Amino acid sequence: MSMRQPKPDWLRVRFPAGPAFQRLQGLMRDQELHTVCEEARCPNIGECWSRGTATFMILGDTCTRSCGFCAVKTGRPDSLDRGEPARVALAIQRMALRHAVITSVNRDELEDGGAEIFAETIRWTRRLNPETTIEVLIPDFKGNWDALAAVSAAAPEILNHNTETVPRLYRVVRPQAVYERSLELLRRAKQLDPATLTKSGVMLGLGETRDELLAVFADLTANGVDILTVGQYLRPTPDHLPIDRYWHPDEFAELKERALEMGFRHVEAGPLVRSSYHAEEQAGASLRRRVFDADEPLALLEPSPR
């Protein structure tokens, strides 16, 4: 499908603008933080930022992987920013978020894949924002289960790891990932902390079939996943994978119905759905705030004024 082919009417989004959008943009620049909303060119940035919500992207803005769908730049990352967890927590405090979503680039050059920074960001967020629930969208840590355990021990309310697509397409969509490894991560996360809601998401429009999608849904429920998101892939640049087709909203509705029948606690499905889109609403009544242990140590530096 050509990049120049007009998008269907159901993919129209609001232009990012307005006072709330500008305030949030200024806050991110002031705290020297990154968001996946900007780096991945999310189509919902106008709506979400105008509502005062954003998905923080930690561990820098450079990914060590080269997924065919993602607009985040690939290369050799900078050194770790040890003050980042505290600054994220401060930004969450200034935004008065009830629910914070934190994701990252892949940092495959690090032994723990950045798990320590994830855990510290969760702990700093709890210290400064005890009423805020926390969702993390994590990489696969190349199968380092000690790294997964470190994130799990920080006790986020929701632990998300996206499957992204069907196994047949992994070689072109996620060439450095392994489908079975993603499933194992989700299964282990639930075993490590059954109280944490686990979550995963897939994109449509890369050449997958309905039957392949239903098979992925079944694999996810078999591995204890609670929440599923299903959205339309949108090609960020001509250098990324082409769109095979646009799935109709009625097809998303049918997939949602089938997924709920399989046993997911909640399913969010629609052309503009992304893993962190309306994240708090996705968890719904099943989301419960964890009790923060005020005596838990924070290993990193005190937040510096910025």
Give a quick precis of the structure.
The protein is α/β, with parallel strands linked by helices and 306 residues long. The protein has 11 helices and 8 strands. The protein has a single domain (17-285), classed as Aldolase class I (TIM Barrel), CATH 3.20.20.70.
Describe the structure.
The chain has 306 residues and is an alpha/beta fold. It is built from 11 helices and 8 strands. Helix 4 (84-95) packs parallel to helix 5 (115-128), helix 6 packs parallel to helix 8 (179-192) and helix 9 packs parallel to helix 10 (249-262). It has a single domain (17-285), classed as Alpha-Beta Barrel (TIM Barrel). Strands 1-2-3-4-5-6-7-8 form an 8-stranded mixed β-sheet. The N and C termini lie far apart (46 Å).
Please tag this protein with its features.
306 residues, alpha/beta, TIM Barrel, eight-stranded mixed beta sheet
Order of helices and strands: HEHHEHEHEHEHHEHEHEH
Question: Can you tell me the CATH topology?
Answer: TIM Barrel
Q: Structural class of the secondary elements?
A: alpha/beta
The total of helices stands at 11
Number of strands: 8
Q: Could you say how many structural domains there are in total?
A: 1
Q: Regarding CATH, which class?
A: Alpha Beta
What is the topology, as strand order, of the major beta sheet? 1-2-3-4-5-6-7-8
Query: Could you give the distance between the termini?
Result: 46 Å
Helix content: 25-40%
What integer value in Å does the Rg equal? 18 Å
Query: CATH superfamily membership, which one?
Result: Aldolase class I
- Poorly predicted runs are 299-306
For the sheet with most strands, the description reads: 8 strands, mixed
Q: What value does the average pLDDT take?
A: 83
The backbone outline, from C-alpha atoms, is globular
Gross CATH architecture: Alpha-Beta Barrel
Share of residues in strands: 5-15%
